[in-house]
Design goal:
The chain is mostly helical. Helices cover about 70% and strands about 0% of the residues. The chain has 17 helices and no strands. The longest helix has 20 residues. It is globular and about 70 Å long.
C-alpha cells in the first residue's frame, strides 16, 4: 500500500517556519549582528531613538523569518510608543503583535488585531510610511486568508496592497506577489503562479519565492525545473530552519518522482540536523512522518512504525491536531500492511481530535 507525503510550508509570508512561541535555547537563538547590538546599547532610553532601534531589530528577525524571537523587543516597542503617545509607532507595535500571533497560529486573535489596526491606520494621514504599513497589514491579512483557504478574500486584499504600495516598497510588493503565487499553486493555476512568482523575484530574491516556483513546476510535472528552483532556494536561504525546510521539500520532490533512496537520504539528514528547539518541533514531526512513509514504501516496517509513533507523540505534545491525525492514519496503514489488522483498526479509532488529549 502506497503512502502520500504532504508538503508542509510555513506561513511566510506564509512563514513556513517556526510555529510555536515557546522559550528557546540560547545556543540555538539567531544572533543579532554587531551593528544592531551596538544600536541597542547606544539607545537605552525610552525615547524615539530607542523605538527606532527596536524596530530595526524586529525587522531583522522579520526578514529572517524568525519573528517569534522578537517577542521581548515587540513588547518594549509597544510600551514605549504608548507612553510617548506616538500613534504611528503604537500602530507599528500592534502590527508586530498581530504578526507574532499569526506566526504562533493564534489565528483568531491575529485576525482581530489586524482588522482593528486596519481601521485605525486607514484614518491616518496618507504618507509613504503609512502606505507601507497599510501594505504590510494587507500582506498579513492575505496570509491569514490563505491559511484559512479563503482564496478570493486573500486575492482581494493582495490587490489592495499592491495598489497602495505602488512606488513605495518593491520588496513588500514582492511578498504580496508571492502570496498570489501561493493562491495560484493551491488552485492549480501553475502557469499563473510561475509568472507572478518570477515578478516577485525582481523585487527581492527570497528562498520562499524559489520554493513556490519549484512547487508550480512540480505541479506541471516539469521535474528538472522543479529541482533547479529548489536548489536556487537553498543557495539564497538565510537560516538553519530555512535550509532544513528546503532540503525537506527537495526530499519530497525526490519521493514524488520515485527516487526513494535520495528522498530517504535527505529526510534522514534533515532529521539528524533538526534542532531540539521547541519551535522546531512541528518541522521535526513532519520530517519523522515522511521518513516513516519512505520506510513503509521500502517495506522497512519496524523503522516506519518507530518514526510514526515518535511523530504522533510530538504532534500530541505540541497539540497540532492535523499532524496528529495524519501521523495516526499513517501508523494504521503501517500496521495494516504488516497484517496486524486488529491494532490497525484500534489505531484508526484513535484518529479523532479528542484522542490527541488522552
Amino acid at each position: 500500500m502506497k503512502t502520500t507525503l504532504r508538503i508542509s510550508y510555513l506561513l511566510a509570508f506564509i512563514l513556513a517556519f517556526s510555529a510555536f512561541s515557546y522559550s528557546q535555547n540560547a545556543a540555538d537563538a539567531l544572533p543579532l549582528p554587531d551593528s544592531l547590538v551596538g544600536k541597542l546599547k547606544e539607545n537605552r532610553g525610552t525615547d524615539l531613538k530607542r523605538v527606532e532601534a527596536l524596530n530595526d531589530v524586529i525587522m531583522f528577525y522579520y526578514d529572517k523569518h524568525e519573528i517569534l524571537e522578537a517577542q521581548t523587543y515587540i513588547h518594549e516597542l509597544s510600551k514605549i510608543a504608548e507612553e510617548l503617545k506616538e500613534h504611528y509607532w503604537e500602530s507599528i507595535g500592534d502590527y508586530y503583535s498581530a504578526i507574532y500571533n499569526l506566526e504562533s497560529k493564534n489565528y483568531s486573535e491575529a485576525f482581530m488585531e489586524l482588522n482593528d489596526l486596519l481601521n485605525r491606520v486607514e484614518t491616518h494621514r496618507l504618507t509613504n510610511r503609512t502606505r507601507l504599513l497599510l501594505g504590510r497589514i494587507y500582506l498579513a491579512k492575505s496570509s491569514y486568508y490563505i491559511s484559512m483557504n479563503m482564496f478570493p478574500e486573500s486575492y482581494e486584499v493582495i490587490q489592495k496592497g499592491l495598489d497602495v504600495l505602488e512606488g513605495v516598497s518593491a520588496s513588500t510588493q514582492s511578498r504580496l506577489l508571492n502570496n498570489l503565487g501561493v493562491i495560484h499553486n493551491e488552485t492549480k493555476n501553475y502557469d499563473d503562479a510561475i509568472e507572478v512568482l518570477k515578478q516577485a523575484l525582481i523585487g527581492e530574491k527570497l528562498s520562499m519565492y524559489y520554493e513556490n516556483i519549484s512547487t508550480a513546476y512540480d505541479g506541471k510535472e516539469s521535474y528538472d525545473s522543479a529541482l533547479i528552483y529548489i536548489d536556487s532556494a537553498l543557495q539564497v536561504s538565510t537560516s538553519n530552519f530555512d535550509s532544513l525546510a528546503i532540503n525537506h521539500l527537495k526530499g519530497i520532490l525526490y519521493y514524488r518522482h520515485g527516487e526513494l533512496d535520495n528522498a530517504e537520504h535527505l529526510f534522514e539528514d534533515c532529521l539528524e540536523n533538526v534542532s531540539s528547539r521547541p519551535d522546531y518541533l512541528y518541522l521535526k514531526s513532519v520530517i519523522l512522518h515522511n521518513v516513516s512513509a519512505v520506510a513503509l514504501e521500502k517495506d522497512n516496517f519496524s523503522k516506519a512504525l518507530e518514526h510514526a509513533e515518535e511523530a504522533i507523540q510530538i504532534s500530541r505534545n505540541i497539540q497540532d491536531e492535523n499532524e496528529f491525525l495524519l501521523c495516526t492514519k499513517l501508523k494504521a496503514m503501517i500496521l495494516n500492511t504488516m497484517g496486524d489488522y486488529e491494532n490497525a483498526i484500534k489505531c484508526m479509532l484513535d484518529t479523532t481530535p479528542s484522542m490527541m488529549y488522552c
